[in-house]
Amino acid sequence: MPATLLAPAEVREVVRCGYCRLMQYRTADSLCRRCHKPLAAPEPEPKLPPPPVVVAQLPKFPKLTSLPELLRVFRESLDLTQPDLARRTGFQRTYISKVESGRVHDLSFLSLERYAKGLDTRGSSLMALLEDPYTEIARPFACVDDAIFRHVGPTLRRLRGATGRSLSDVAAAAGLYYQNLWRWEAGYGIPSLTLLGRLATVIGKPASAVIAEIENAAFPESKIEIKTN
Length: 229
Known about the structure:
There is one protein chain. By secondary structure, the chain is an all-alpha fold. The protein has 2 domains: 8-40, no CATH class; 67-222, 434 Repressor (Amino-terminal Domain) (Orthogonal Bundle). The chain is 45% helix and 3% strand. A hairpin with a 6-residue loop joins strand 1 (14-16) and strand 2. The chain is elongated.
């Protein structure tokens, strides 16, 4: 009997005969070298379904319940020390330490904006992160205290006016003195973050959205939209 020829090297493969179970190279005529019966056609590799694609939007920061904790976590995420942030903001390092430990009981609105700029973001983004850890973080603008200060009053007046409620009605609902709200809207002062939050609740917006409205009025070329649920 003539010698069995092997398949060409470029298509040579190892197969098992389905009859005598001999492991061998596939021959040119696809016959078993031992029992000379047809070698079974190679079984195609099973097609496994592709792994499921899991799309998960992970929060950039854990759910935090206080502004001091958020400011500390945000700073640490940027690998900034307290002295680094002090140089960026012009605040004293001891003041930053007090803020992050909660010993500054009510941060001012302008202080929040300076703090945010030192963290490469905006005050509205910091406040939004307290409301929703999935918030997209906006880039900072050239924070100028005077520009923001000038637009606090007109923005608060416009937002209150959109509710159709009088100044005295909104002040009473927010637990504010009428004279204070009048002064803020007239441009003679600005509310602290706590009082701004109470005012925002009454006009039906998150504090972050009210702050974003002020920022957008002061810097329309860098306008952002805060998404509210």
